[in-house]
Every structure is written in structure tokens, then in C-alpha cells.
Amino acid sequence: MKAIWKNTILAESDETTVVENNHYFPAESIKKKYFTHSNTHTRCPWKGRASYYNIKVAGEENKDAAWYYPEVSKLATPI
């Protein structure tokens, strides 16, 4: 599985986890040079608090385009 934006591979892994039709990539598969931390946070009742990344490729930014769960709840341990 590849995550691509603006013809640029942002992440690539054969071991993503699918939850609610979203693919979660292992942290080590992310090309971090394209990701910057966002100040956005949301809360899912069963996954916990999500933090977001902005993605920047070739001078173009996609705000809050990727998210992760730094401390995932026990119900969502696979991600």
C-alpha cells in the first residue's frame, strides 16, 4: 500500500492496518520529511485523541491531511 499526494510517495508498507476504511501505516514507513505537526487534535470515542500532520510537497501544503493516535485506547490497540 502506498500513500501518494502530488505524485510523491508519502508512505509505503505491506503491513497497514485497516480501521473504518482508513489505512494506518506503521510509523517507520512514513517519509517524515513531508510531514509537519499540526496544532489540530480531535477525539474519537473508541480510538482516543488524534493528532494531525500537515503534508508539504513541492511547496504545496495539505493541512491536517494525516492523523495518528499517540496513545491509542485499548479498544483500538491494532492501530
Automatic annotation (TrEMBL):
Matches recorded under InterPro entries: DUF427 (IPR007361), DUF427_sf (IPR038694)
The organism's place on the tree of life at top rank: Bacteria
Record-annotated DUF427 domain positions: 1-78
Protein name, as recorded: DUF427 domain-containing protein
